[in-house]
Amino acid sequence: MAAADSLRHILTQFEAAAERLGLDAGMRRRLVACDRALIVSVPTLMDDGRLHVFTGYRIQHNNTLGPAKGGVRYHPDVTLDEITALAILMTWKCALMGLPYGGAKGGIPCDPRAMSRGELERMTRRYTTEIFLIIGPDLDIPAPDMGTDEQIMAWMMDTYSMQRGVTVPGVVTGKPLLLGGSLGRREATGRGVYYVAVEAAKLLGLTLEGARVALQGFGNVGRTVAQQLSQEGCRIVAVTGSRGGRHQADGLDLERLAAHVADGGRLEECPVGDRITNAELFGLPCDILVPAAVGGQVTEANADQIRARILAEGANAPTTPEADAILRERGVLVIPDILANAGGVTVSYFEWVQDLQFYFWTEREINLRLREIMSQAFRRVHAAADKHKTDLRTAALMIGVQRVAEGHRLRGLYP
Fold first, then answer.
1. 215: exposed, middle or buried (Cβ count in 10 Å: 0-12, 13-18, 19+)
2. Catalytic positions, please?
3. Are both 83 and 163 inside the same structural domain?
4. Residues 11 and 160 in one domain
5. 178 found inside a domain
């Protein structure tokens, strides 16, 4: 899906929620306008002696409910429109979950897989220096996203701290544990998807023992969802990556798949089950489908092929508005991204709180708090959907948008 389409889809979804809420034109314009959009040059010395100038983005959509929060993405397809769309999505997600944050997003168009560790470090440090003035534990707190990880966050934290002259662990989340990271953060997004999938199964009367699950994406999110649902007795019948994957009707051997990928092998080449394409994945008979890769995967071209009862969006914006309408007509329960994958930002919030207090919780405490927040959010969204006779996505957006709009109303307009 083109980045411009991603932004259009996010705004289309917002308008549907705003219409149901009866928001006036002025409030709608205020809610979609970004507080700040920063585009920076990121000159980086490459290993061969060349100077390459990357472009960096940091978008802060809305800070009405608190400091901005959102990931940093390193991917060849990063654009200003995509980062803007994701920042807007983060605002609604944080508001929906009751977190004291606004939405932000950052990124650099690059291919991190083709860059050395030294190149990545130099690029990251320069990018952090360029956005230094607008980030901070009470301004904007970056986190990992596609193409970034704990090490990238460590470099960002160190660069910021060196310029401040004091160690500031709360400037980013998703850091290594030794530098103020949180237990459970790496698995948090996947755990959140798992928790809401369990709630959805209860709602539909679906027994998880023997339920068939298909996943697109086998990174931190997809792998964690697969492992958690497998422990509930589900059969993971298919898993795909960017170039396809494997399918086995009686359930894949997840440990073998994970070991194959950990050893540097490609998912589609693992000698378990049969090879399957991403296109074929969406037509498989299954009970739970989890798109946990990139956006724009479920479209009007394949939505009528989906045979799952539950579609849990582990990725951001994986379903287009046109596909949403088809799935709703066919009775597929879609758990929207701002609810389903909110476990990551929720535990990022836990990490931030721990950093500010210099007091850290056990992993059991974190997972219990996460499960309670995710389960309550699902029930809250379902109750709103039932009340307003709408789907879960519109209901979730109505809750998030209404909270931000109310925040604007209470704070007033300055000056």
1. buried
2. 105
3. yes
4. yes
5. no
Blockwise average pLDDT, block size 10, the chain, 415 residues: 75 94 96 97 98 98 98 96 96 98 98 97 98 98 95 98 98 97 95 97 96 93 95 95 91 92 88 91 94 90 94 93 94 96 97 97 97 97 97 97 98 93
Residue 323, domain extent: 188-340
What is the full DSSP assignment across 344-391?
A: HHHHHHHHHHHHHHT----HHHHHHHHHHHHHHHHHHHHHHHHHHT--
For tokens 């809305």, what's the residue? 62
Residue type, 53: V
234, 206 Cβ separation under 8 angstroms: no
The residue among 103, 100, 293 whose CA lies nearest residue 214 is 293
Whole-angstrom Cα distance, residue 8 to residue 386?
Answer: 27
Give residue 220's pLDDT.
Answer: 87
Q: How many residues does the chain have?
A: 415
| pTM value > 0.70 | yes
How far, in Å, CA of 90 to CA of 70, rounded? 7
